Amino acid sequence: MHSALKPFWGALLVGLSAFLLPAIAGAADHAPQREEMVRTIEQHARYTSDIVGEDGLSPRVLEVMRSVQRHLFVPERRRSLAYADRPLEIGYGQTISQPFIVALMTHLLEPGPDHVVLEIGTGSGYQAAVLSPLVAKVCTIEVIAELGEAAAKRLAALGYANVETKIADGYHGWPECGPFDAIVVTAAADHVPPPLVEQLKPGGRMVIPVGGMFATQHLTLVEKTESGEVLTRQLLPVRFVPFTRAWQ
Ligand code: SAH
Q1: How buried is residue 201: exposed, middle or buried, by Cβ count under 10 Å (0-12/13-18/19+)?
Q2: What is the pLDDT of residues 79-108, one digit of tens each?
Q3: Are 149 and 124 in contact (CB under 8 A)?
Q4: 76: exposed, middle or buried (C-beta count within 10 Å: 0-12, 13-18, 19+)?
């Protein structure tokens, strides 16, 4: 009797672990939360499609949002909120943007596999990680040294090998890394920095929140036509941390 039970318990254990282990691994990897986050992003994109003038977000962008481990880009004490559709503090008075805004900005850049993209405001490195699989190279600049250094380490440890980082005032861009097919600015400036327009390739796109400290900020799309003409379109009211200048 006793020995006959053994294989039963053994089989039960094997059966249980076949069920439980992937579930536990999935939970640690936060895949279900990411799936939920992507559903929320899609919903948010539907609500805003009229004002933004975009009919849904690119499947390539949603796929990347589904795979990047956002919880590894937020401070440990904030991990439980990593997949909520809201911005989170990352220290030094800065924030990691809300997932919907990251997805929307990435979509608006129309990233292509041979593109070189500039980001101003590395912060946690999350936006750079989202861009990384979609393009050939990401160059990202952060003005707060501690944040930029931590993000550079994090991105390297997670294997984002096509991301180059730099500590500087991003107002001046990064001519040696460019010219750029797309530029994303993740802090609100009161005007579009001319050096960034300069470093944008003809046919290139820039997405930047524009608005003063106490004024409404608008997510703004800047397009440089093939003939070099610059077109600007305000898309959506947003709230970003301020673009600071190194000398301030
Ligand atoms: N893209 C980031 C969001 C960071 S918040 C992420 O995915 O986590 C905006 C960042 O822009 C902050 O870290 C802030 O320090 C940085 N920033 C503000 N002004 C800047 C400037 N002039 N040059 C470079 N970075 C700047």
Answers
A1: middle
A2: 999 999 999 999 999 999 999 999 999 999
A3: no
A4: exposed
Q: Give me the long-range contacts of 203-207 (CB less than 8 A, separation at least 24).
A: 204/179, 204/180, 205/108, 205/109, 205/110, 205/181, 206/182, 207/105, 207/108, 207/109, 207/182, 207/183
The minimum-distance atom of ligand 1 relative to the CA of 169 is 23
Residue 27 alpha carbon to ligand 1 centre in Å = 30
Q: Check if 140 has its Cβ closer than 6 Å to any atom of ligand 1.
A: no
Q: What is the value of pTM for the model shown? A: 0.90
Domains, the chain, ranges and CATH?
28-238 (3.40.50.150)
Q: For the CA atoms of the chain, what is the radius of gyration? A: 21
